[in-house]
Predict the structure.
Amino acid sequence: MSAKKNSVENVVILGSGCAGLTAAIYAARANLDPLVVLGVDAGGQLSLTTDVENYPGFPEGVQGPELIQFMKQQAARFGARFVPGDATAADLSERPFRLEIEGSQVETQTLIICSGASAKMLDIPGEDRLIGHGVSTCATCDGYFFQDQELAVVGGGDSAMEEAIFLTRFASKVSVIHRRDQLRASKIMQDRAFDNPKIEFIWNTQATEVVGDAEVEAVKLWNTVTDERWEKPINGFFLAIGHIPNTAIFEGQLPMDAQGYLLQKEPGRSHTETDGVFVGGDVHDHIYRQAVTAAAAGCRAAIDAERYLELAGEAPQSSVATTRTST
Ligand code: NAP
């Protein structure tokens, strides 16, 4: 389904992960006829995972891509429209805001940015193929599946320490693989990791391949100082080498922190410094990064956008949501 022709959208939502699709459900039910830009990584990080057991309402768990599909269907049921691809440029200098979406110009009164943050990957053989089958970027999401198993975590920052410590609740052993011989993590996190008897450190080492047919069986390692190469049997391979928030098109237009995460105008609210622009999900949250917190943030952003349009006298009059089908 395409954007409206020759008219200004009420709300454009960037991203179709938990935050974007929840924003779409709320905006659609408020009869705002939202346009959702799916993004090149449609479905966000959940689409990269398998079992999700911590999203409320699914006592037996749910597959990540299935949960995303449910949310999309739910938004479509209330009239949300979807366009594939990404916003490649944005002009937020005045309203209506202007976006370029895969070569088309779209104007909108409000914008909800839920474009997420992509976990950095190593780009080594096996990594892509085994994601969701032992390769993971989220210990909180997937740790539980590795009871009494041997795991590896790549990285030397706070995330790597946090993930390694968390994983020791389930795993028999966690090996932290770090490319240098010093950690980047804060002292307190380092100390906690060093004090944990289930954690071992493998220094000056890079992972060069994830090995396994249907599931992770081992990782190939290379010590960059001694040039030693070996294969280490493991059941799970966790990447914790940072995230990249998808905010490049807003550089110079919206305040962001040093890593590029968008900043809210006030903590706990979805407003940005630019009136009419709202944020939700991992694009502004590098702390919680959970499906349920992203969904909650998407909900907040849609409610704030609706109230903004109402105050500006730009909310649609009819309260009857139209039913449209998604692409
Ligand atoms: P980070 O601080 O940027 O650390 C990334 C780690 O991954 C670094 O140790 C880096 O190695 C390593 N790395 C990056 N690219 C790599 C590659 N291609 N191959 C191998 N290793 C690679 O990221 P983060 O740990 O996700 O933390 C991000 C921010 O969130 C930080 O400000 C952090 O303090 C904060 N945070 C805080 C907490 C907490 O306080 N509980 C928890 C999580 C995150 P080098 O060290 O060699 O560069």
Observations:
- The radius of gyration is 21 Å.
- DSSP finds six helices and 19 strands in the chain.
- The first helix runs from residue 18 to 29.
